[in-house]
Design goal:
47% of the residues lie in helices and 16% in strands. By secondary structure, it is α/β, with parallel strands linked by helices. Helix 3 packs parallel to helix 4.
């Protein structure tokens, strides 16, 4: 992984704000630590409703959201995010343990965005985020 280490060392020191939305505390902690080590200032939320509340307060350069959560799913969260903070839909990466249980509509939305399958190793999380940053940049539009 020397190339990935090189890519990480070339990142700006401050990548802006990231939001991690997942109902599993251990996942929020893992992703939060990875993002902080990469240079993001990280906020977390336990479900999509809490995620929308965070979006009302400010924009995020990156949003990592679980798909299956109580109260408001990741699919509902992404669909409502642009109403709260225009441009937010473009900043999403999904994470999930299963894609096969989604409806056709949910599957189309989920697969249009990068997705990290659980359980994920740190290098997979970092690689997905680096690819996202290459394609979308670091600034929230």
């Amino acid at each position: 992984m020397p190339q990935q280490t090189h890519a990480l060392s070339n990142l700006p020191r401050d990548l802006g704000r990231a939001l991690v939305v997942d109902d599993e505390p251990v996942i929020r902690t893992l992703y939060g630590e990875v993002l902080a080590a990469m240079g993001f200032r990280v906020d977390t939320a336990a479900d999509g409703m809490e995620g929308l509340e965070r979006l009302k307060i400010g924009s995020y350069n990156l949003i990592i959201s679980d798909i299956r959560m109580p109260k408001l799913s990741g699919i509902e969260f992404i669909l409502r995010s642009d109403e709260v903070r225009p441009g937010s839909m473009e900043r999403f990466i999904f994470t999930t343990g299963v894609l096969d249980s989604l409806s056709a509509h949910e599957f189309m939305i989920a697969t249009a965005r990068p997705c990290i399958m659980k359980p994920a190793k740190v290098d997979k999380i970092q690689a997905t985020i680096l690819e996202f940053l290459r394609e979308h940049g670091t600034a929230h539009s």
